[in-house]
Amino acid sequence: MIITILTDPSPSATVDAAVALEQGFKDDHISIALNPHNNPDLLLARMGAAVTTAVLDFQCYTASLDGSKVDGVMLVQPPGFEHGVSPNSKGPHTQLAKDLSTPEANKAIEGLKNLFNELETKAFGPTAVRDTYYVSHLATAPWAAGHGVGGQLLKAIIERATKEGVPVTLVTMTPRHEEYYKRYGFTTKHYMTYDLNGTPTEWWAMSTDL
Question: What SUPFAM superfamilies does its record include (predicted)?
């Protein structure tokens, strides 16, 4: 397993990571609810924007089983940032996703921002994720499923954070994933339900313990 931190924000350098994220999340019930008109290009545009923002402002880890392609991706906000707030959270690289979105989807995204603020404050305290390594995205491409890609990415950030004496935090949306993260030392700090565009959803805010 080859773990790399991307440092080049150019489209040619980030496209493979964006595709891996898109493939990993395309059947996710949250992604579907945030794409009410089923635009086939919207999720890839969103993932491309997220990867580029991570390279510019945060951290983008990629995993490859044999070095030939990107098989998994993890986007991490290091300490010092509020959820989703950074110098390059908006810019030319986010324009396509903005253009492809709809008022209905935009309203749902704004609702999610409020949800995250409430959930993470209740889970982690008044500074929410600002004093943690926050894993905003973690996905394994379907072709690499079952090879421990996500686990190796998690171990990389947990090892780094532990050395610095900082917890790792994340939010997950299914009971199966909650159990998965528990295997890597995460515990649930708060749980909420939320109606997302008519889709009942569940949210677990989790953290490693120092």
Answer: Acyl-CoA N-acyltransferases (Nat)
